[in-house]
Amino acid sequence: MTWRTETNLDGNFESGGDASAFSFLGTSPDSSGATGKFDVRYPHEVGVGAAWKPRAKSRTVVRGEATWTQWSEFASDLAPDTALDDVVDVRFGVEHVFYNNFPMRFGFLYV
Q1: 38, 13 contact by CB (below 8 A)
Q2: How much is the pTM?
Q3: What value does the CA radius of gyration of the chain take, rounded to a whole number of Å?
Q4: Which of 41, 43, 49, 40 is nearest to 89 (CA)?
Q5: pLDDT, tens digit (0-9, with 9 covering 90-100), for 57-98
Q6: Cβ(50)–Cβ(64) under 8 Å?
Q7: ∠ at Cα 84 (78, 87), nearest 5°?
Q8: Which is it for strands 75-76 and 34-42: parallel, antiparallel or unpaired?
Q9: 57-90 residues labelled b (16+ CB within 10 A) or e (exposed)
């Protein structure tokens, strides 16, 4: 089982270059560039997974995992009108290691 807490990133930025490239900031910089502050909040996520070996001496492992991420809580000063949906993704996979230690894997991801 995994649980990742909400993460906040904040800081200052300074950019230089072509003034037309700064239109997303809503300001027109002078020749020295643009400066400002940003704050980005990444959402928390919860996951659960399991692995199963069909037999004790088998070199085959079956794995499954489901993760829920609350993307509706994502927030950013640089993109304030972002509206995201929460996501549940499910992973399923099989791995077999042959006698020459060559692994073969097959997996499926549903989002």
Answers
A1: yes
A2: 0.65
A3: 22
A4: 49
A5: 889 999 999 999 999 999 888 778 888 999 999 999 999 999
A6: yes
A7: 135
A8: antiparallel
A9: eeeebeeebebebbeeebeeeeeeeeeeeeeeee
